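Box 4.2: Ligand-aware structure prediction
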Amino acid sequence: MAILAVGSIAFDTIKTPYGKKERVLGGSATHFSLAASFFTEVRVVGVVGSDFTAEHEAVMTTRGVRTEGIQRANGKTFHWSGEYGENLSEAKTHLTELNVFEEFKPRIPKEFLDSEVLFLANIDPVLQRGVREQMPKVKLVGGDTMNFWIGGKRKELGETLKGIDILLINDGEGKLLASDPSLPRAANKILTMGPKAVVIKHGEYGATLFFKEGAFGLESGHPFRAPALPIEEVFDPTGAGDSFAGGFMGYIASQPKITREVLKRAMFYGGVMGSFAVERFGTERIQVLTRDEIENRFQVFQELTRLE
Ligand code: AMP
């Protein structure tokens, strides 16, 4: 099944203990689409300014991502600047320059309306909802958000959540969204807000999937946790969450049916893609990644947790 992804296409200025890079290609939709493109057809909807060049677009088209949904506006592309300290677990945002996002009205090209899976990557929840409403027949909707929107647009986000089947969120953001310091309780509160399932991402410690009773017709509603690969050198964590989401949603979209086993494997593929994303700055690692490398690392993930 093809995935339609809407989200930010950005230039990121990133500082980590390993160095600083100015205005590299980033954005939630970019990282998501590149990761998901290894599993299924991806169609992206977003907005860029006049500083977005043919070379930037080629990063996506080279991976087969369909870019007809990228709108070009007068002005500058969205710019995010952030810094990671020694533990690399959370970015400190220095700057969020919305630029062309201020006036963005997502338009879905006609040829994309048959997409069966929709991913609402991190972006203003009002825009996420606008896209959801243009896709009434979609079969599965995934979504992401961040503290910037939980703090700034909580009410609007509440409305958007009603149209999302699977929410992927960091543990800190999950607790913030549910206003609850207990993670399992926060997850269960989020499950009363609309989503049937929520994936709580724990950065270097993996991710946990919580379900609503009877979600997707599955028998077992027990949560499932997948580990993260212990990586010695995390170069730049930017995009790890979106790449996780790309692997997770991409794998699900490539399967004929949602089963518990498919969801568990999707959690592993999410972890695999997140682990590659952090090995270099921005999108650099995913741009040169191969499907064989993905499968090899998937095996390593399985070994990490297998009981005889
Ligand atoms: P993550 O995968 O969580 O590390 O997301 C990183 C990406 O999110 C970066 O490439 C940023 O361009 C993008 N980003 C940062 N802040 C925002 C925001 N407020 N809205 C949309 N995208 C953002």
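In the box above, the bound molecule is adenosine monophosphate. The two ends are 35 Å apart (CA to CA).
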